[in-house]
Amino acid sequence: MEHLYYKPSGKIPVKGIFISLITSFVITVILSIIYIALQWFIPFIYLNIFIAAGLGFGIGGGVFVAIGSGKIRNTKYEFVLAVLCGLLGWYCQWALFVSLMSEAEGNMGGGMWVRSSFNLTGFWYILTHPEILFQAMLSLNDVGTFTLKHNTISGTLLWVVWVIEAFIIIGAPILFSLSGRSTNPFSEQNDQWMEERDVEGKLKTVTDPDQMTEELNTGNLKSLKQFLPVDDLSNDYATLRIYESPGDPVSYISVTNISHKADKKGELKKETNTVIEYLRITAALNYEQPSLQDINI
C-alpha cells in the first residue's frame, strides 16, 4: 500500500524556517504574558490547571499556524518546534512571574502578593539570566506562592504542583503536534496546502474500510456515491472530506463514521471514527461541484 495514503514530503523551505520560528516564538511569548496576567488577577487557584491547559494548547495552536505559514512538510521539525515552544512558554511565564514578584508590594498572607508593576528591564534581565530565575524559584518554594484552605502551599507539595504545570504547558504542544499541520495534504505541484471541503449529504456507514479502500484504489468510486436519502433520519452515517488543489491531478479523501449512542441518562451522544484518512485519489473529481454527484466513474 505504498503511496496509497498521503505522506508528507519532508521538505523544510529555508524561508519557512524563519517564518515558523518568528511566528511561533512571538505567539508563545504573548500567550505566556496573558497566562501570568490571568493567574495574577484571577484569585481562584482551582482554575489554574485550566489556564495552564489553555496556555499549552494555545502554544500548540501557534505552532500549527507557524508550520502552515512556513509551508513546512516535515513532521520531525514540527515536533521539535513544539518542544522548543513549550519550553519557551514555560520559561517565559516563570521569568515574568519572578520579575513581577521582585516589584510586588503588600500581601494577603501566605505569600500572595496583590500589587506589582511590569518592568521590562527587570523581565529581560531575569529572562537572560536563568541562574537568577532558578534561584528565585527555590526562594519562592520555601515561602510558598498561594494558599489552599488557609494553608500556605510550599516545599515538596509546591514542587509537585509546578511539575504538573510544566507537564501541561510543555506536553500539550507536543501532543498537538502529533497530528499537526505538517501531516495535512500539501500540493507540491502548486506549492500550497490543499483546500478542504466537506461533501454535502450523508454516506452509508463504512463497515469494511479495507474493502472500500481496495475498491477506491482500483478507481471504482461508486462507494462514494452511496448517499442516504435526504429524509433519512438514521443516527448512523458517514461523512466525506476532500483535499484538493486546482490543477493538481491528485486529491485525497477522508471518511468518518458518525454514530449516536445513548448514555446512562438515555441521551444520545455523538461519536466520530475516522475510518479512512488522506487516501490518495487519482480519478477525476469535479472541482467545481460541492458534492461528488458528478464524479467520473
Protein traits:
297 residues; two-stranded antiparallel sheet; 7 helices; 10 strands; alpha+beta; 2 domains; 4-stranded antiparallel beta sheet; disordered C terminus
Q: How large, in whole angstroms, is the Cα Rg?
A: 25 Å
Helical coverage, percent range: 40-55%
Oligomer: single chain
**Structural class of the helices, strands and pairings?**
alpha+beta
Tally the helices: 7
Major β-sheet profile: 4 strands, antiparallel
Spell the H/E element sequence: HHHEEHHEEHEEEHEEE
Question: How much is the average pLDDT?
Answer: 85
Distance between the termini: 22 Å
Principal-axes geometry comes out as elongated
In short:
The chain is α+β, with helices and mostly antiparallel strands and 297 residues long. It has helices spanning 14-41, 48-70, 75-103, 120-127, 130-143, 155-177, 209-217, and strands spanning 105-107, 113-115, 146-148, 151-153, 186-187, 192-193, 195-198, 237-244, 251-262, 268-281.
Structural description of this entry:
- The structure is a single chain.
- This protein is α+β, with helices and mostly antiparallel strands and 297 residues long.
- The chain has 2 domains: 170 residues, no CATH class; 94 residues, no CATH class.
- It is built from 7 helices and 10 strands.
- A 4-stranded antiparallel β-sheet has the order 7-8-9-10, with helices on one face. Strands 1-2 form a two-stranded antiparallel ribbon.
- A hairpin with a 4-residue loop joins strand 5 and strand 6.
- The longest helix has 29 residues.
- The protein is elongated and about 70 Å long.
- The two termini are 22 Å apart.
- The C terminus is likely disordered.
